Hints:
It is built from nine helices and eleven strands.
Amino acid sequence: MQTRTIITTLALAWCGLVSAQTVHTLSLEQAVSLALQNAEELKNLRLDVAIQELNNKEITGTVYPQISASGQGSYYTNLPLIQFPSSNFPIYEVLQDLGVKDGNGNPVSTSDATTTSHSISFVAPLNFQYGITVNQLIFQPDIFIALQAKETILQYNRDNLSVSENNVKEAVQKAYYSVLIAEEQKRILDETAVRLDQLIAEMNQMYKSGFVEKLDIDKLTVSQNNTTAAINQLVNSINISKSLLKNAVTMPINDELNLTEKLETQDLKALLLANTDDFNYENRSEIVLLNTARQLQEIDVKRQKAAKLPTVSAFYQLQRFTSEIPILPLREAAPGFGIPPACWGLACNSRSSTGCRQNIEPVRLN
């Protein structure tokens, strides 16, 4: 009973393993297309190209006017107060000079004057402030160098993607043809093994008749054993090459892979005898990438040299203040009023001297 249970469990596990495997039949073109579509490295490089396109738009946006708006409101629950003095001394002084007398007949004197104070606030309890600011960049060295370099940087990312795509294609093609070559070698050795089996059987019959020696049969047996060992090695080589191909096309390692291409002598000869008279070394993707990188380095040299130039920008500001201003006496208020100031101007910023760094940078650039 226990043995039957173990056999049943192993059978179910084998069925599950077989059902989980998927058979893929690929041509060389399909394998390359699948690898280009699923390679993680290429996905990241395509994202780099998309990110750089967005960065280029951001850089372009810096040369357009930058408009910003602001607003603020405040209310004082307790107003700050100051004591404002109030006195009738000047009035008594005038009356004294005129010789005016009071109701009792006594002359008016400045000593009868009084001095008081009133609490005054010059701050409005309710204040509003809002405005609009417009800035326009006229010249900034690094921005204008970035405008010149943005397309080159984008082209560098595209060239880098092209180089990686060619590397992926090459890896897939090598793995694909490695499988084809190993399978062709195995086919030839299988045929050789069949001929050796037939030959050994014939030699045994001839040995029984006395026409050959035992040594001749032993030599053929050694050749047969060597051929069998070579076939086993090729089987392992085919499995390894298929695993490499599966990894190149991002296919699950447990899936079954069948190749539809065959090694044709005419196709190989046509590939070797292809006309290479119009081949231009500068058109290789690696050389194109290096040339683009060199252009970026030249632009970076310009950026370093232009860093000493000033940054110039224009601005325009329009603001408005509205307040409710109290007047005497305290807590009596006047109607609100507004003050709409506006101004425009130019701003210029230049990097100051950095000591010996200015002498070091040209040497480093050269």
